Amino acid sequence: MPKDLFEKALAIACCAPTGSNRQTVKWLVMNKKEDIVNIGGHVIDWMRYISKTQPQISLLFNMETLIIQWDKGEDRICRNAPQLVFAYASDEFGSAAADCHTALAYLELALPGFGLGSCWAGYVNYAANQWPNLAKELKLPEKHTCHGTAMVGFPKIKYYRAPKRNLPDITYHV
After folding, report:
1. Angle at 36 between CA 35 and CA 40, to 5 degrees
2. What is the pLDDT of residue 85?
3. Mean pLDDT of 95-106
4. Which of 27, 35, 75, 77 is the most interior residue, by most CB within 10 Å?
5. What's the distance, Cα to Cα, between the start and end of the chain in Å?
């Protein structure tokens, strides 16, 4: 990953609006393959635990299939991404989650302008907030929460238009 391109996109993400303009979003970037594989392993450990203790949740989130694929050497967690980006903030700010989500959305929109792409890593984010071993690995400051994670890299597929979406569901107040 070219650091200069990524940092330009991240500078745009830092322009995202935040509650009271507090600019609380902090970023943790991992770009070593062994660290990303380690993160994926922690997520799988969390999934194994959930599969044993909360089988209904495991079924709902297709965890057994992901565990089987991981055991066969297929990374469906981080998808062999060259970089993981975590957006986190202090728990003292009520708008922290919205601020992080908005900043990640800005990042996602900025990356294609630099020839890069992203995909949110929902399983990684869930595990970061529920699995103590992964939380310890991330080394976030005390009383800070990870509110979003994205995989970043060079896209394998070039899209020429946005995916088809439903029309807006609008109600005007009268």
Report:
1. 115
2. 98
3. 98
4. 77
5. 51
Tell me the two tokens of residue 24: 């609380």
Nearest-Å Rg of the Cα atoms of the chain is 17
Alpha carbons 174 and 161: distance in angstroms, whole number = 35
Tokens read off for 23: 């600019």
Question: pLDDT tens across 5-27, in order?
Answer: 999 999 999 999 999 899 999 99
Amino acid 159: pLDDT: 77
Distance between CA atoms of residues 110 and 163, nearest Å: 17
- Inter-residue contact 111 to 90 (CB < 8 Å): no
Distances (CA, A) of 13 to 10, 59, 82, 106, 173: 5, 35, 19, 5, 33
